[in-house]
Design brief:
A hairpin with a 5-residue loop joins strand 4 and strand 5 (117-122). Helix content is 29%, strand content 21%. The strands form four sheets. Strands 1, 8, 9, 10, 11, 12, 13, 14, 15, 16, 17 and 18 form a twelve-stranded mixed beta sheet that branches. It is an alpha+beta fold.
């Protein structure tokens, strides 16, 4: 480890020590008017000869450019970097809001008794941005697309549809292999493009997204910006903002400065120090958990020997070496340690009996000695632009692990490059590292992350424990939500007892806003432009 990183982390620890001296599925009866929140158009004071309202452009700045603008089939719904494009250009059948589940492209819905078939009655008179009518055929073709791309798709992870059937032009059934009692919470991820893309030209989904949303895709100038424009034939209320320009700057100080001098109106990924200097701030608790994944078996496929962390003692040693309070101190009160699981109090499947293992460096050192691993080197992959202070967190964790007698080869990289280290499917298995730290990409509920991270075939699964899928199958078989939540909590407890993963902490998302921009994030944190308005 470099001396600079060691001094940095020792400084964190010194500061810390000095300071220390789901609910049931919503009723599917819509109670909120359909569509995006209606926002009245601001009426500017006209010049003596002016008669029309002035055009308004929202200027956004994010820390990194998305690797694809379409995101369909590979979208990371929990990542706000891609969401400004996806959620404003395309729409789901239904939407989860603070008021409950509300209609979007479907006006009502019902399910079979066993919850394996969900029927949606579609909104009529809706147009795609290419002028085509929205019908059940578009839903069917998109369902085929994500089912056929399930290895890559984080959409299919959450909406594992096996088949879609058009009952008529405006009625469609989604059919699942297993019961889906949480489908109404997960359907937010099912953003529908026209069949002209999903069936006839799927490659365009990555470069030229199209949907029925209030904004249409205009252009992507790679390395510079992405532009959207209001869709004037949108079926819902007309948003105030006419155009959107999304720019990218990795330096937090640059994003803050641009906001302060009025060059941009909306900035994502501000740390606690920067947010205190922004003209205005919006914030919410992130649904994501920063967690550490161990490789317990994949590298054996080519090395023919068990990976480093096939030994439970070493997995435990890493956790006992991590001082969560020191990591949380990096965020100045804008992060909280995890409680031995991805779920938080109040979340579906939260287990109140689970607690994180305490920081105990001496126990960690003893476990490393017992495993005969003193001086051995492990590989550790981490991002530099996925979440606030991710580089600092990775460096601190690597330093803490090295205090046990292990050596760490820390591999820092942009999140676009880290993707091949995260996913464990196909050719990407060759990039497996001993450790990886990253957020969960979870939105609204975490049950869908169980098969994603701990069952055979999951795109992030690096364990080989038959008890994990057995426990989850019990969860899947339970239709009673209260009992299902209890069984899910027990499954999380088993994973943690076996040290198959380390939930580290949750942080807050913070956005900087111009003084004249009004916006409050919804329960997903996605920036819906139709919910924003300028006050002047």
């Amino acid at each position: 480890m470099a001396r600079k990183r060691s001094l940095f982390v020792l400084g964190i620890l010194a500061l810390l020590f000095a300071a220390c001296g789901p609910a049931a599925t919503p009723t599917p009866t819509p109670t909120v008017p359909p569509g995006a929140t209606a926002v009245p158009t601001a009426t500017p004071t006209p010049a003596p000869t002016a008669t029309a309202a002035k055009s308004r452009t929202l200027r956004m700045m994010q820390p990194r450019e998305p690797h694809t603008v379409g995101l369909q089939g590979t979208q990371h719904a929990g990542s706000p970097v891609g969401e400004p494009i996806a959620v404003n250009v395309m729409e789901p059948l239904i939407m989860s809001t603070k008021e409950g589940v509300v209609p979007r492209l479907a006006t009502r819905w019902e399910s079979s008794a066993d919850l394996t078939r969900w029927r949606f009655y579609l909104r009529r008179g809706v147009k795609f941005h290419n002028g085509a009518d929205f019908t059940a055929r578009d839903v069917v073709e998109y369902a085929k697309f994500i089912s056929g791309n399930r290895i890559e798709s984080t959409v299919w992870d959450r909406v594992p549809v096996e088949e879609a059937v058009a009952v008529d032009d405006y009625t469609v059934d989604l059919i699942f292999k297993d019961s889906q009692p949480l489908h109404l919470n997960r359907a937010y991820h099912f953003l529908i493009p026209p069949l002209a893309l999903s069936r006839d030209n799927p490659e365009m989904l990555k470069t030229s997204p199209m949907g029925t949303g209030p904004y249409r895709f205009v252009e992507w100038r790679v390395g510079l910006d992405i532009k959207l424009a209001r869709f004037d034939d949108y079926w819902g209320p007309k948003p105030q903002i006419d155009n959107v320009r999304i720019m990218f700057r990795p330096e937090e100080a640059v994003r803050l400065a641009a906001l302060q001098v009025g060059e941009v109106d909306w900035v994502y990924a501000l740390g606690p120090e920067s947010s205190s200097r922004a003209p205005k701030v919006a914030r919410m608790a992130s649904p994501e958990t920063v967690w550490i994944r161990f490789d317990e078996y994949i590298q054996k496929e080519w090395t023919l020997v068990d990976p480093f962390f096939a030994d439970k003692r070493l997995r435990l040693a890493v956790e006992y070496a991590i001082d969560r309070q020191a990591l949380v101190a990096l965020y100045g009160g804008f992060a909280t340690p995890s409680l031995g699981q991805w779920a938080s109090p109040g979340d579906f499947g939260y287990n109140p009996d689970l607690k994180s293992r305490p920081y105990d460096l001496e126990k960690a050192r003893a476990l490393v000695r017992e495993a005969g691993a003193v001086g051995k080197t492990l590989t550790f992959a981490a991002s530099t632009d996925r979440y606030i202070k991710d580089r600092e967190v990775a460096e601190a964790v690597a330093f803490m692990i090295e205090q046990t007698g292990l050596k760490v080869k820390l591999m820092l990289m942009p999140s676009a490059e880290l993707k091949k280290y995260k996913d464990v499917t196909g050719k990407q298995r060759q990039y497996m590292t001993d450790l990886l730290i990253n957020p969960t990409d979870a939105v609204l509920e975490v049950e869908a992350r169980f098969p994603w991270g701990f069952m055979e075939g999951g795109s992030h699964t690096a364990i080989n424990d038959p008890e994990a899928p057995r426990l989850y199958k019990e969860v899947q078989a339970e239709l009673d939500l209260a009992k299902r939540g209890e069984k899910l909590g027990k499954a999380w407890a088993y994973l943690y007892e076996q040290a198959h993963y380390i939930p580290v902490f949750k942080l807050e998302w913070m956005w900087g806003l111009a003084k004249n921009l009004e916006w409050q994030p919804g329960i997903t944190g996605a920036p819906f432009f139709a919910d924003m308005r300028f006050t002047d």
